[in-house]
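thought: fold this chain, then report.
action: predict
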Amino acid sequence: MLSSMDDYPLHQVAEPIRHAATSDRNFYDRYYFNLHASSDDLFMVMGLGQYPNLAVQDAFAVVRRGGRHLVVRASRELGDRMDTSVGPFRVEVIEPLRKLRFLLEPSEHGIACDLRWEGSIPAFLEPRQYLRRHGRVLFDTQRFAQTGTWTGTLEVAGERFEVTPDRWKGTRDRSWGVRPVGEPEHPGIRQGEGQMVGMWNYAPMQFDDHSILYIVHEEPDGRRPMEEAMRIWHDPSRAPEWLGRPEVEHELDPGTRMISKPSTIRFPDAPGGPIEVRVVPLTHCFVAVGTGYGMDADWRHGMWQGPLVVQGREWSMEELASWGWFGIVDHAARFELSGPGGERRVGHGLHEHGFFGSFPKYGL
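observation:
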């Protein structure tokens, strides 16, 4: 089970790198990226994950373009963990924590790209996420996040886009740890209980000289297992600023768990005075559909598909509008900031939300 990574001084436990410290089947290690043109033109989400205790490595790319939801996905048996490729997908680390490359080779499935990522802020380590249900650890994950820009080429259903960093921006993260993956397990005492309950809301927003990383996971009774509100300057000599406890107001579309109208995020205890951000959705992607995030019985992150499988899928946004919001929804959004002393800024970024199970605050 030796791999090329074993020749580097990286070991944390008395095992080859191929083996995680825990034998929990749900251990994972994943890349996530998104890309938008600071507009409503299109929204793309990409990912690649390893599941050492399930012996699987998989990847996906999903693009919302007009009325189409296009997915390319691939899965293979995990071998050398330094080999970050799955069929036509490949992730390359050019300069750790700063520059990466995401490659999806052309195929009959309608999406291809050769994109280079450059971080605009230093990679930021978010709070650890830990949830226990009926004695079992359900989530024990660590993640770092970063806003940045893209350069390269993108092809979607015959259209070609020249991607330049002046307007093509996005967010990436690297997360690892334990969370539900692979084939469904017998639920036992957890039957009828969701993996996560309440509201998940995540919004990394990028302005000209800084970014704000905002997270709220709020349970139905108002408790928050996780929250974050940090201003991170593009100038690494300036220390990050904690903005205090964030507050948020959403308006859900009637009869759904979908947000299509502007939301408001407030940081009333921010250093120097309160900050308010109006979040304007531009275009959205039902990222849980077709990619492995749990809404497809035949394709989940870490699910064994065989030695190598590559697939393409397509849905109409009209079809997904009636049920896609039962999972996580990712929006490309405009963020309009108002701060002390008449400060006004406009930025762009990700507005991600999910509402799971009962959530009385919004009548769910």
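thought: worth noting. Residues 317-320 form the longest helix (4 residues).
final: tokens above.
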